[in-house]
Design goal:
By secondary structure, this protein is of the alpha/beta class. It folds into two domains: 228 residues, P-loop containing nucleotide triphosphate hydrolases (Rossmann fold, 3-Layer(aba) Sandwich); 222 residues, P-loop containing nucleotide triphosphate hydrolases (Rossmann fold). Helix 3 crosses helix 4, helix 4 crosses helix 5 and helix 9 packs parallel to helix 11. The longest helix is centred in the middle third of the chain and has 18 residues. The radius of gyration is 23 Å and the shape is globular. 45% of the residues are buried.
Length: 471
Amino acid sequence: MTTLSTHQLNFTYQSDQQPILNNISLTLNPNSFNLLIGVSGSGKSTLLKLLAGLYPKFAGKITAGEVLLNAQPVADIVPYERAQHVAMLFQNPLRQFAMATPYEEVKFALGNLQFDPNEMPDRIQSALAFVGITHLAHHQIRHLSGGEQQKVALATIIAMDADIILLDEPFANIDPMARQSLLTALQKLQQTRGKTIFISDHDLSGYDGLVDCLYQLHANGQLNEASLNLLKAQPTTVQFENRMNQQVSPLSWQNLQVQLSNTLLIQANEFSIPYGQIGIISGPNGAGKTTFFKALTQQIAYTGQITWHQKSLSQLRPKQRAKVIGYGFQTATDQFVTMTVEEEILLSKKQTQSSEFWTSTRIEKSLKQLQLSDLLSHVVYRLSGGQQKKLQILSLLILNLPILLFDEPFAGLDKDSLNQVLTLMRNYVNQTGHSILLISHQRHGLENFIDFELTMTNHKLHLLGEDSIHD
């Protein structure tokens, strides 16, 4: 049986800083299902990368203790041999892809591990079926939705057949039904094939009855085993009350359609974004939600009309459109154009459309609220996934645009961070009258903040609670 453990492990990214992980002693029992929780920035991704043998080779320094794979220092084991025992899924799946299609990606990974070429087709097919994407086998990965890309990365890990599977926020962009299906499949993998599974996740729903050990990583870098009772009474579904007001913003669309090779991707009839409210767009992975945002921001061709003050948005010059709609990308690092947190905030402050609202005092208060004040000198690409999301959201809010679109803004946020971000968004729309429309598979914790819900079903956009508006 493959064993993986740490003993009194301390780790830091820079020698002159406090350890991000402090005296970590952990043993993953073979053939067990384990869950890792903790606040954003506590070091969960760092711990997984240490267990996978990626750190300190590629970043940071172990200042005390060790990581052992089968009683050997993991750093001493050559990557080829290590990958046969431990496989890791990154928080951002795009960082793992080397090939153009899901089939080629899984085949590439198996080739690196020197699997028998005659066995590869069946192994690839089985892995793609495990995550439910056999129909996407030969599609371009870059054209898939974020959730579908996560499934491709997970299929690659499954195909590698490692004894220990480390998954960093594997369901962040996956719809609730697919999430539950994958959790059940992972438990079956653990029970029938003897795998050891270690998942980092902020969303605790669906884990009750699956998890053998629950570990909690704290802000001080210390780890403890937590009670499994934390996983009980997690709501399985969340419904949003329709609180949409009748006062609308100047942004609307009429008979909007997006097609690709005569295939209908999106159909949205007539709707106007409500004034000063927060809306959510829901729907399964691949339904067309991100495509819809790309149409609203004029990144792809469409038919019908998208208007601003009853004038076609396409007729506005790019600089004019940039003062109307802001778009928060699904991957936060794609948004950043500077190196440090402070530089990113100063750039947004320089470009804000309301310096009267976004004063230095308000920005400093917001940074403190989001627990970013002590990270101003940090490189944005070295932040945790949750910290990057908080910085991305604040940077866009500071621009003070009438319409803000956010694509999966809550991925990687713990419960408290989620509430902090939503409170900031709510105060922003209430005080400015601006509007926010977001795509999110995260629903828990949003109940008191969402004013209306649009759902993408069968490529058509509907307003829940008032079907006549979108049918």
